[in-house]
Amino acid sequence: MLKIAVIGAGVSGLSVASLLGAAGHKVQVFEKSKKIREIGAGIQISPNGFCVLKELGLSENIIKNSVYNNSVLICDYHKGKKLLQFDQRSVLGNKDFRLMHRADLVKILYRSALSNKVTFKLGYDADAKSLSNQYSFVIAADGVHSKTRALLNPIQSKNRRSDYFAWRSIVPNKITHHDGVRLTVAPNKHIVSYPVRGRDQLNLVLIQEAENNEIFEWGMTESTEEIKHLFSEFGGDLREALDTITTVHKWGLSSHDIPFNWATGNIFLIGDALHPMLPFLAQGANSALEDAFVLAKLITFLDASEAADKYLEIRKPRLLRLMKQIKNNAWKFHLEHSLFRACTHGGLRFLDKSFPLSASLPFRWLYNYDVTKLNI
Question: 196 or 359: which carries more pLDDT confidence?
């Protein structure tokens, strides 16, 4: 039995703590907030993340508190007309792609950790270096602005601004939104929407290219008039959803190169602390779940040095490929040149009419990956 400290009680911290607790280790989570809470909005749990939740015995609870993502719909912003829609089951063959509220996922993971005898120290701003003398391992799940990443990588300590702003809001689902993810694309901006909480609510993520002046905090609020003005050119039934926004949170998106040092001594990075990523593929939480499973297995059977080497060997190639795909999506979603847009949209319409099932093929490497089946 190992004595393990986890810094941070987000998705990555709670999942790795629960996995380690289930393996019989003594785990304590340090969270700077005074209570376990999640102020985010919707979250997409794709099959590569769902398999970890299934390993924790949480699949039934997740399904009960989520909506099945039956297809991805890509629309043009002007009148909301369909460009391409493809069925997720053609790739996955199951219903393990879920849409849910992030707060519901955090609550489920928290209860799982408690059931696995994980203890919590809330309202405590933990320091990885000081904890490393008291614990067999310290796992830093301290998020996008990780102090531990800066400790392990002083030259790579600062996040890089991305010149994107994002807004998130939850509104009543009063439009004819399908049970899946809708991507509505426009020059220099896009909107992602999907139903959550029994389809009664609609999660909206609005992203625009704009100089963000390194404003990276989630807690800022935006006036509803401003957000409606910024996205006033969006038509169709999405316009109706935008008009119902009453509260919206804004933040400047940041990114960070995958750091050189993933671990130092017995201190390990995980989740956003290791690989903060832009939300152009909805893989932040899913990658964190993959990290959690791999790291929990490795530190159970290997010493710190061997675990660090194997952790990097298993996770880095996949993360690099993921980052490349995210960068490509950022460009594709925001096509500005009218000729490029016309050609691209024409190609999507042709694909929709002729070979819609083929649209899902490029995602098989991502979604069909089951980290729980690896020989670790």
Answer: 196
Query: How many C-beta atoms lie closer than 10 Å to residue 363's C-beta?
Result: 17
CB 186 within 8 A of CB 260: no
Residue with the two structure tokens 């080497």: 309
The β-bridge relationship of strands 67-68 and 267-269 is unpaired
**Residue 50 CB coordination number (10 Å):** 25
The span from the CA of 40 to the CA of 38, in Å, is: 6
H or E element at residue 328: helix 304-333
Confidence class of residue 183 from pLDDT cuts 50, 70 and 90? very high
CA 19 to chain centre: 19
- CA 275/CA 319 separation, integer angstroms: 8
Is the pLDDT at 271 greater than 90? The verdict is: yes
What are the b/e assignments for 221-251, b being 16+ CB within 10 Å? ebebeebeebbeebbbebbebbeebeebbbb
